[in-house]
Amino acid sequence: MLGQNRDVNIVVGVTGGIAAYKTVHLVRLLTKGGHDVTVVPTADALRFVGLPTWEAISRHPVTTSVHEDVARVRHVALGQAADLVIVAPATANSIAKITAGLADDLLGTTLLATEAPVLIAPAMHAEMWRNRATQANIATLRERGVHLVGPADGELAGGDSGPGRMSEPEEIFAAAQALLAPGDLAGVRVVVSAGGTREPIDPVRFLGNRSSGRQGAALAAEAAARGAEVTLVSANISGDVLADVRHPSIRVVGVGSAIQLAEVMKREAAESDVIVMAAAVADYRPVAVSERKLTKEGGGVPAIELIENEDVVAALASARRPGQLVVGFAAETPEDEAELLARARGKQQRKGVDLLVVNEVGWERGFESAENAVHILGPGGAVAATVSGSKRAVASAIWDAIGRER
Ligand SMILES: Cc1cc2nc3c(=O)[nH]c(=O)nc-3n(C[C@H](O)[C@H](O)[C@H](O)COP(=O)(O)O)c2cc1C
C-alpha cells in the first residue's frame, strides 16, 4: 500500500480528454490509500467531468484558475507542498504546454512551481500520439526527468484502436506508489566517476581510451532512481549519453585528464558515503605537453615519453573514512575466466577497494555497447554476483551488492 499517510500531498491534474472519467477512480484509489489529494483540472477537463465530482471525491475545493484563493498564493503553494504531481489524462495540448512551460492556468503554475516528481499518463488518438510534435515533447519531458505511465495500445474513444489509450487507474496508482516509496539509497550521497580520461600531448591531440561512460552513467541513474544524491564525475562523456541520465538528483561535474579527475574525485569523496570509480583512468600521461601543435616540419617521428599517473582509486580507498565504501572497476583481456578472476582479485587487494566489478573487454566487447557482463567481487574476493544484460540492469545488480555491504 501507499503508506496510509495523510501527510503525503498529491496533486492530480486532469486535462480535457474522455479518459478523465477514469481519473475519478484513480483519485478514489489515492484517497483510499490515505493520501491528501487535490484535483486541478483544466477548463476543458470540466467539460468531461464536472467540478462537483472532483470536489466530492477529493473533499477539497477545486478550481482551474489562479485568481481564486489568492491570499494563500495557491498558484505556487499547491506545487510547493506536493510530494507528487500526476497529470491524468494528459492531452496532446497539455503535454505541449507542459513542455513549453506555459503557466496560463492553475495546473500550469503548479507544474512549474513543484520540485516533486511528476508523473504523466498521456491519452489521445494514435495519430496524435505518433505525431512528431508530440513525440518530441515527450522526449523532452523524459530528458527532464518527468515520469511517464503508458499510453497503452488498445481501443480508443472513437472506436478505433492503437497506442494512445490512457493506462488503467490501477497502473497509474502503482506507478505513483513506486515514486512515493523511499528508495533503498534515500539519503545516501554517492559519487560515480565515468568515461575515459584524455592525456594531452599537444593542444589538439591526446592519449585516450574507448570508454563511453555508459556503465558509469547507468550507475548514476540507478542510484538517483533509488533515492541517492549523486555526483557524476564525467570524463569526456558524450552529450547523448548524459542526456539519457538527466535527473534532478544527479549533478554532473566534467573533467578531462587523469590529474583533473583525481582532484575532483578527492574533493567529492570527502562529501560522499559511496565512491564508485567506473571511469577508465589512463595509467600514463606524456611527461611533456607541447604548447604548440606538433608538426612534421622538423622531420622525424616524435617520441612521447610517458610518466605514471596516480592510482586514484587506491588513493581514495586508503583515505576512506569509517563507513565509507569504495567500489573499483577493472577491464581485462584475459585468456580465460580463471585468469579474469585471478587478475581481478589481485587488483582488488592491491587497490584496497571494498568491491571490485570486473568485465572482460576486447575489440568487440564491453566498450561503447548498451550491454555488459560482469563479475562483482565482494570483500575478500568472493564472487558476490555475476550479471549480464543492459548496463542499467548491471548497475542495478551492482547497487544491490553495495547495499549488502553497507
Ligand atoms: C470528445 C472529445 C474528446 C477528446 N479527447 C482527447 C484526448 O483523449 N486526448 C487529447 O489530447 N485531446 C482530446 N480532445 C481534444 C482536447 O479536448 C483539446 O485539445 C483541448 O484543447 C484540451 O485542453 P486541455 O489540454 O487544456 O485540457 C478531445 C476533444 C473532444 C471534444
Structure overview:
- The protein has an eight-stranded mixed beta sheet, sandwiched between helices. It has a five-stranded parallel beta sheet with strand order 2-1-3-4-5, with helices on both faces.
- The chain has 406 residues and is of the alpha/beta class.
- Helix 1 (20-32) crosses helix 8 (169-180), helix 3 packs across helix 5 (106-113) and helix 9 crosses helix 14 (391-405).
- Strand 18 (371-377) and strand 19 form a beta hairpin.
- The mean pLDDT is 92.
- 35% of the residues lie in helices and 24% in strands.
- It is elongated and about 80 Å long.
- The longest helix has 15 residues, at 337-351.
- The protein binds flavin mononucleotide (FMN).
- Assembly status: single chain
CA gyration radius, whole angstroms: 26 Å
> How far apart, in Å, are the first and last alpha carbons?
27 Å
Q: Spans with pLDDT under 50 lasting ≥5 residues?
A: none
Number of strands: 19
User: Percentage of helical residues?
Assistant: 25-40%
How are the secondary structure elements laid out?
Layout: E1 9-14, H1 20-32, E2 36-41, H2 51-58, H3 74-81, E3 84-90, H4 92-100, H5 106-113, E4 118-122, H6 126-130, H7 132-143, E5 147-148, E6 152-155, E7 161-165, H8 169-180, E8 189-195, E9 199-200, E10 206-207, H9 214-225, E11 229-235, H10 239-244, E12 250-255, H11 258-269, E13 274-277, E14 284-286, E15 306-308, H12 312-318, E16 325-332, H13 337-351, E17 355-360, E18 371-377, E19 383-390, H14 391-405
Parallel strand pairs: 1-2, 1-3, 3-4, 4-5, 8-11, 8-13, 11-12, 13-16, 16-17
Antiparallel strand pairs: 6-7, 9-10, 14-15, 17-18, 18-19
Helix pairs in contact: 1-2, 1-8, 3-5, 4-7, 9-14
This protein binds flavin mononucleotide.
